[in-house]
Design brief:
It is a single chain. By secondary structure, the chain is α+β, with helices and mostly antiparallel strands. Among the domains are: 230 residues, Beta-galactosidase, Chain A, domain 5 (Distorted Sandwich), CATH 2.70.98; 222 residues, Glycosyltransferase (Alpha/alpha barrel). It contains 19 helices and 36 strands. The strands form eight sheets. It has a nine-stranded antiparallel sheet with strand order 1-6-7-8-9-16-13-12-11. Strands 2-3-4-5-10-15-14 form a seven-stranded antiparallel sheet. A hairpin with a 4-residue loop joins strand 6 and strand 7. The longest helix has 22 residues. The chain starts with a helix and ends with a strand. Bound molecules: alpha-L-fucopyranose (FUC).
């Protein structure tokens, strides 16, 4: 009894600690960004975004709008591809990989657009003369409120700037204030790098920047956009020049910025950008700042506050963000991990909102007219990674723009399937853009991969596994099925192995030396795993909806003929059908571990030898790599139930870029560095930290599966699991789970896997689990036994002891479990 009261008191203290610890959810600095974009702080509402520099004399708000892309509606299939398909296949099967790649380059890769660019709008620049001699400088991004702030002192006056991009009002609002009246004086101008642009001053308080995006890769730029900046002053006077507004002697100033384009959807750009921008700003302009701010915070926190994390805090947390980043590898700073974790959620909420575009390679933040990889959508890993945290960190709504894009690709990808493969269904190659291109780009080495549709379609199915929403499943089922239909037609029997394989395909962007440096291949492990998942998801979706019995049978039959996974002579999971992996290969893509994460085909409980082989593959590939690759590795090591190794990867990722040798790291504003900036690493790491604390893919909800020594104590609230459960709160101490409260949103069996014995709060016992989990949301894939090389000495790994319980639940009820 005594022990239980102590426990409950501890638990209440933890809950209080969680609400207090959020004070630390700020990125802050005591120096301005100067002219470095990666020092500036990102704000956004999924449609509009800005990088806030926090410079004193010349403040810059670098502006983005999610639909400002080069080009215009276009397709990029290669019409010669189908005729060349049998020849390409023949060369692959004959082992003439280089010749196959050459032919694919000539006949299959697009001769049209290699994808369009996400482009910036321009800058809002505020010039404050005589502010060069400043003191008490401070700037922050409060990720609990989604507000950026800068303050400093000049001549005994403290100046403050606040900026946010309102979620409900769709405009950016900047407030300039001072602690003495009549002190605000500056000039405001809009600038842009676009060739086709027109900057005007409207009346005495509005700036307008109108422009058209670039022509690119033979496609004419036709996205027209308009940015308006309108100023409201308290006191003072405004005068204007041809291209600027000058404010003098104001007490405080509000600047409203709205941006809109003519983009309606990927095939329609007939909207009126001027009217749209005007409507947003007109609606917002008469509102009070305090009201707008309160409504903005409330709309943001509706999502952000769903998950709280506390890993404890140390003195290290008192330093500015850039210093913490520098120190992270040599100090204990657990709340820096919390900050980085929640920053990932902040970035997803700010870059991906229902009705908008999905987060691209840079989310929604880009200052360059020609960004790296066009800042488009690389769908052989990067785009999917962006959305790994969405469902489980309770941001299901943020998944919506991606799901919409997938449905659009299922339309555009149909023609690509017909024209290039003579197949039904749909597919996408390794990239897409705002025009939803599905043709192969960049050259065969990269672009020959055709698994984009297959992989993305898993997101449609995953969403159902988390929400159990049958209506939704019905609406997306045609796209899930379409991905399967493509493979039904496209798979071909391998002449040597007799398995059904994807050919041509590749293991994204990697090639074994034995294949003459060509990546083109038949039956790469990742392709096999993808086809398996596509068939499995379609079968399970059809069963859940009670449709397509014959198609289910057909897919079951084909599934049996897919290649098994193979364990090679280095005790590794083979990347290709032949045992040609090099144990010294450090390639950033480890695509064959797709089967371990995000898929759940490789499990320590169901196929322990494959699991052991996956670990060897991870060890052989090493840790340091590009930012996103390290983000993926955090997830993999979490799946390996090795918290310390996962933590090591977090350390590698949270290393200032300037000090990294041979890999990625993190910029001063905590953007992930490929390098250059790529946002996938941020999202991948947020996902990975979640996987360290909770996994729900292997037939059970596994709590604290991969705690590192550094997170021995902590708590988290609000995570979502497959099967529609919410982890309302979970507290652990010294690596032991003390208390967990779980709400069942769909009912059904709750299978828990935990590191120590627990019981109901009432003292009632929990039932030990046995057999398969009867909850259909936890159905695990049944894969073929692996083929193991004669030279392999693979043995299963020793796992940590866990306890497995089954708890029948009722829809809408909550259950608390405590230490036994
Ligand atoms: C893939 C990766 C690169 C980069 C690019 C955007 O091509 O191999 O590392 O992330 O996408």
């Amino acid at each position: 009894m005594m022990r239980k009261s102590i426990l409950i008191i501890f638990f209440i203290c933890c809950l209080q600690a969680i609400s207090q610890d959020t004070d630390g959810l700020k990125l802050w600095y005591n120096v301005p960004s100067s002219d470095t974009w990666e020092n500036a702080l990102p704000i956004g509402n999924g449609f509009q975004a800005a990088m806030v520099y926090g410079n004193v004399e010349k403040e810059i708000f670098q502006l983005n709008e999610a639909t400002v892309w080069s080009g215009s509606p276009n397709r990029n299939d290669n019409p010669n591809a189908l005729e060349a398909l049998p020849k390409v296949r023949k060369l692959i099967f004959e082992g003439e990989y280089k010749a196959a790649e050459n032919l694919a380059n000539e006949k299959r890769i697009t001769k049209r657009s290699h994808g369009q660019m996400f482009q910036p709008v321009g800058n809002l620049e505020l010039t404050f003369t005589d502010h060069d001699d400043f003191s008490n400088y401070y700037r922050e991004l409060d990720i609990e409120k989604a507000i950026a702030k800068t303050s400093y002192m000049v001549g005994g006056v403290t100046y403050t700037r606040e900026a946010f991009i309102s979620f409900p009002d769709r405009v950016m609002v900047i407030k300039l204030s001072a602690d003495k009246p009549g002190k605000i004086a500056f000039s405001a101008a809009l600038t842009s790098q676009h060739i086709k642009q027109n900057i005007t001053v409207n009346g005495n308080n509005e700036l307008s920047l109108w422009g058209t995006t670039s022509d690119h890769d033979g496609v004419e730029g036709k996205v027209e956009f308009n940015a308006l900046a309108r100023i409201k002053t308290d006191g003072g006077i405004i005068t204007n020049t041809d291209n600027s507004l000058n404010i003098e002697k104001a007490n405080s100033v509000l600047i409203f910025v709205s941006i809109a384009s003519n983009f309606n959807n990927y095939k329609d750009i007939s909207g009126d950008e001027n009217q749209r921008a005007k409507d947003f700003i007109d609606k917002a302009f008469d509102k009070s700042f305090d009201k707008m701010k309160a409504e903005h915070i409330a709309a943001y926190q509706k999502y952000f506050n769903c998950v709280k994390l506390d890993l404890g805090s140390t003195e290290a947390a008192k330093l500015p963000t850039g210093e913490r980043l520098k120190n992270f590898n040599t100090t204990e700073d657990p709340s820096f991990v919390t900050l980085y974790y929640q920053y990932g959620r902040y970035l997803l909420i700010s870059s991906s909102q229902p009705g908008g575009q999905p987060a691209n390679l840079q989310g929604i933040w880009n200052g360059s007219m020609k960004p790296a990889w066009d800042s488009k959508y690389t769908i052989n890993i990067n785009t999917e990674m962006n959305y790994w945290p969405a469902e489980k960190t309770n941001l299901s709504e943020m998944h919506e723009p991606l799901l919409k894009m997938i449905l659009e690709l299922s339309e555009t990808g149909k023609e690509t399937a017909k024209v290039m493969y003579g197949a039904d269904g749909w597919l996408a190659h390794h990239n897409t853009d705002i025009w939803r291109i599905t043709g192969p780009i960049d050259g065969s080495f990269w672009g020959i991969w055709n698994g984009g549709g297959g992989w993305l379609s898993q997101h449609l199915w995953e969403r159902y596994l988390y929400t159990g929403d049958k209506k939704y499943l019905e609406s997306v089922y045609p796209a899930i099925k379409g991905a399967a239909e493509f493979y039904v037609d496209f798979l071909v029997e391998h002449p040597k192995y007799k398995w059904l394989v994807v050919a041509p395909g590749n293991s994204p962007e990697n090639a074994p030396k034995e294949h003459q440096g060509a990546s083109i291949t038949a039956g790469s492990t990742m392709d096999n795993q993808l086809v398996f998942d596509v068939f499995n998801a379609t079968i399970n979706a059809a069963k859940a909806l009670g449709v397509d019995k014959n198609f289910i049978k057909k897919l079951e039959g084909l599934k049996k003929r897919l290649p098994p996974m193979q364990i090679g002579k280095h005790n590794q999971l083979q990347e290709w059908l032949d045992d040609v992996d090099s144990p010294t290969d450090k390639h950033r893509h480890i695509s064959h571990l797709y089967g371990l994460y995000p898929s759940n085909q490789i499990s320590p409980y169901r196929n322990p030898k494959l699991f052991a082989a996956a670990k060897n593959t991870l060890l052989q590939r090493g840790d340091v790599s590009t930012g996103w690759s390290m983000g993926w590795k955090v997830n993999w090591w979490a799946k390996m139930q090795d918290g310390n190794h996962a933590y090591k990867l977090i350390q590698n990722q949270l290393t200032p870029l300037s000090t990294v040798k041979g890999g990625g790291g993190t910029y001063n504003n905590l953007f992930d560095a490929h390098p250059p900036f790529q946002i996938d690493g941020n999202f991948g790491c947020t996902s990975g930290i979640t996987e360290m604390l909770m996994q729900s893919s292997d037939g059970a909800i596994h709590l604290i599966p991969a705690l590192p020594d550094n997170f021995k104590n902590g708590m988290i609230s609000g995570l979502k699991t497959k099967g529609g459960f919410t982890i309302e709160d979970m507290v652990w101490k010294n690596g032991q789970l003390l208390s967990v409260k779980i709400t069942s949103n769909l009912g059904g069996n709750l299978r828990l896997r935990i590191p120590n014995e627990m019981q109901f709060e009432s003292g009632n016992k929990l039932n030990k689990a046995s057999g398969e989990n009867p909850n259909s949301f936890f159905l695990v894939p049944k894969i073929k036994d692996p083929v193991i090389s004669g030279a392999s000495t693979i043995q299963p790994l020793q796992l940590k002891k866990t306890f497995l319980y089954d708890i029948p639940t009722e829809k809408g009820s909550s259950y608390r479990f405590v230490l036994k």
